[in-house]
Prior knowledge:
Order of helices and strands of chain A: EHEEEHHHHHHHHH
Strand order of the largest sheet of chain A: 2-1-3-4
Shape of chain A: globular
Radius of gyration of chain A: 17 Å
GO molecular function, one term (chains A, B): transferase activity
CATH class of the largest domain in chain A: Mainly Alpha
Domain GST N-terminal (chains A, B): 1-84
Helix content of chain A: 40-55%
Number of domains of chain A: 2
Strand content of chain A: 5-15%
Pfam families (chains A, B): GST_C_7, GST_N_2
Protein name (chains A, B): Glutathione S-transferase family protein
Keywords (chains A, B): Transferase
Distance between the termini of chain A: 36 Å
Structural class of chain A: alpha+beta
Oligomer: homodimer
Amino acid sequence: xxxxxxxxxxxxxxxxxxxxxxxxxxxxxxxxxxxxxxxxxxxxxxxxxxxxxxxxxxxxxxxxxxxxxxxxxxxxxxxxxxxxxxxxxxxxxxxxxxxxxxxxxxxxxxxxxxxxxxxxxxxxxxxxxxxxxxxxxxxxxxxxxxxxxxxxxxxxxxxxxxxxxxxxxxxxxxxxxxxxxxxxxxxxxxxxxxxxxxxxxxxxxxxxxxxxxxxxxxxxxxxxxxxxxx
Amino acid sequence: xxxxxxxxxxxxxxxxxxxxxxxxxxxxxxxxxxxxxxxxxxxxxxxxxxxxxxxxxxxxxxxxxxxxxxxxxxxxxxxxxxxxxxxxxxxxxxxxxxxxxxxxxxxxxxxxxxxxxxxxxxxxxxxxxxxxxxxxxxxxxxxxxxxxxxxxxxxxxxxxxxxxxxxxxxxxxxxxxxxxxxxxxxxxxxxxxxxxxxxxxxxxxxxxxxxxxxxxxxxxxxxxxxxxxx
Lengths: 230, 230
């Protein structure tokens, strides 16, 4: 049965931008499971499937509804054990949580701030006021002021990527010779900005591009096919 | 057969301080393998087992000699598969390399600088000149100048620990409910400074102490038994 994936979109349904949803897109593609998109805008999220979650992604797989990207990955791994593994054992499953928290605490704050105005501009008329109000409350300043600050933090952000860059001296993916869920966790943070903003968060000569491009090529180029910001 | 572990020591053989050796001590204890220490000082390292390695740890297990903490962990996992696992599957093995590079790039530079003068003071008369000369060449300044700088970088270091701190909201170890090699990778960086320096690299109220104390309690308190710096 085709899995339904509630994806976060703005005015353009062809440009899903949520990093957490991208983790699930890559997980579904990795497992080779058929799925269809249910495009969802910010203010529609609380209504998904009768209000099961305040956040996205949410999937419906037959009668089963699962929210939260990490919980979805665990669900897919348990439910489809004969498909390619997302974790390759209990050790991978446990350690993936560390990678998730690394990505969330070291990469997301900068990337989310850097793309903030561009994500705002992607929203339709009904969602723009919601986005501005909720984010300005969270940051304690205007969207414009948050994004204006990004250049000042760019060097520190690029330095925080050093563990990933250094790992590539040993192996082509976090998963070793082939990718798995932790690669998707980190790649999805980059894909978030690729889709929503033209901001050059990586230098053109950053060796990380090799890994980003390998991720973009995966699964028939599912991530590369989505139009990026101009 | 008892495994021989070449450990790095200073004047006092009872205080092995190398973080990389601590990874191996914890790995051997995790596997429950009998081993004995071969205390080694910096200038003796190139002579170990006929000069197999420029760095420590090195182990001898019967006829087999293995150098490098990560290679040793892989060797122990492969050679003693019936003992408790250090990686719990291929996923854990692959991802451990990312954790190693995180620890090496995000934790070691600060911790090594912060403890530098104290590590110097631990060396015996023959090793002090070697240590001073090689480290001053590496840093491009005096040992005293490197250590004097530590307070200025302390806050940034503590912030870089956020992924680990945040992970503890989900699980007690990087390995999930129980520890494994990646826990030892990170813990050993802390143990390095505990043994060599009185410097308070963690605030007294840092929630990470819960995890550090859990690690110190492991395997009959093998890490806690080593005398710390005054």
